[in-house]
Amino acid sequence: MGKNFAVIDTETTWGDDVMSIGAVVADCDTFSPLGARYYILTPFKKDGGMYSNVLYLETPDMECSRETAILDLKIFLARYGVEEIFAYNSLFDYHHLPELCKFRWFDIIKIAAYRQYNKKIPETEDCFKTGKMKRGYGVEDIYRMLSGSSYFEKHNALSDAVDELAIMRMLGLSYADFSAARIFPREFAKSCL
Prior knowledge:
Blueprint: E1 4-12, E2 18-27, E3 33-41, E4 62-64, H1 66-79, E5 84-87, H2 90-96, E6 104-107, H3 109-112, H4 139-147, H5 157-170
Parallel strand pairs: 1-5, 3-4, 5-6
Antiparallel strand pairs: 1-2, 2-3
Helix pairs in contact: 4-5
């Protein structure tokens, strides 16, 4: 696994087009943020979505076409030597960003929702035999569990990426422990060669 990694989040329109992308790059040893980028995509932002009201909660680095945003994002990730991308429920973001399929993707849920990794899961919590929680493992639930706060997810792509990085840090694991979170989607394998 690399020296730096990225956490990415997307927000979509009612028509399931990406209207914003948030990315934060972090150091593998400290999980400290090193840089961030936030894109609002045109013309999709005008289509609206469930969370359109918080699009401008963070100031965008660029308000631009999808192609321009992806090109800038790839340059940004390359500057930090990023080869690995994390997301909470990463298949959603992976499917919405096929241009990033050459990166190794990891799902934070595969660590945060499992008793063997998340030591803050109460003994009374109902879990499958695999150790995965049966319910209540969304971003808000896990953040609250780890922080003890009354956190509410903002549903802004950059804010959520920063919060998902905080979840990784609060789990108190080494970066190597997150290798178990790797996903291997087959759907884009041919187009990604």
